Amino acid sequence: xxxxxxxxxxxxxxxxxxxxxxxxxxxxxxxxxxxxxxxxxxxxxxxxxxxxxxxxxxxxxxxxxxxxxxxxxxxxxxxxxxxxxxxxxxxxxxxxxxxxxxxxxxxxxxxxxxxxxxxxxxxxxxxxxxxxx
Amino acid sequence: xxxxxxxxxxxxxxxxxxxxxxxxxxxxxxxxxxxxxxxxxxxxxxxxxxxxxxxxxxxxxxxxxxxxxxxxxxxxxxxxxxxxxxxxxxxxxxxxxxxxxxxxxxxxxx
Lengths: 133, 110
Known about the structure:
- The complex is a heterodimer.
- By secondary structure, chain A is mostly beta strands.
- Chain A has one helix at 49-54, and strands at 8-11, 20-27, 30-38, 46-47, 63-68, 73-85, 88-97, 106-107, 116-121, 126-131.
- Chain B is built from two helices and five strands, in the order E-E-H-E-E-H-E.
- Chain B starts with 7 loop residues before the first strand and ends in a 13-residue tail after the last strand.
- At the A-B interface, strand 1, strand 2, strand 3 and helix 1 of A face helix 1, helix 2 and strand 5 of B.
């Protein structure tokens, strides 16, 4: 049986709205701290539009992309940012919803989940991570 | 002079902040060390999570800016809320949008 070691832990309440953990997004010297939900169903990391505005992102440099949802599609804009969770730092392209009414912050597969090893015991509200190396 | 408050762990001879500090490389700072108890394995919730659980629904439909269990500012304009928090000396507060119906379960993310 393979054994996996983790270097960081985080506690959350299973009764809360999701498996959330603190995230820092950085664009140069500008940084914003937020809670985001682990979402293994999301292909990318997606954040609220307002948070992108707080980071003073260059709209001209944005990479537009459409994402399918359960009922239709949503538009988003990608930016190369630093993303930090539980002291693990990456540089990733993350997306911000074009529609400011979407108030979800999602840690998806490309740019986050594919950079780490993740352990989860939802019954205990325990999340374990380590860098993928 | 800007004052920052941060929690850190001393391990292997180094003081490691739990959250990143807004400092320039090789910047000199003054430290005042206050001994605090480490959270137990069963209560490792962040203080912000505790605050949101206790008070979040009082601010439904608004952004809140938190530093630990302290509410720094709140309102509908995210930038104004962030700037008010910065004016209180917290460069990178936790920014949380409180849903209009925070008690509803989530069927799917998007």
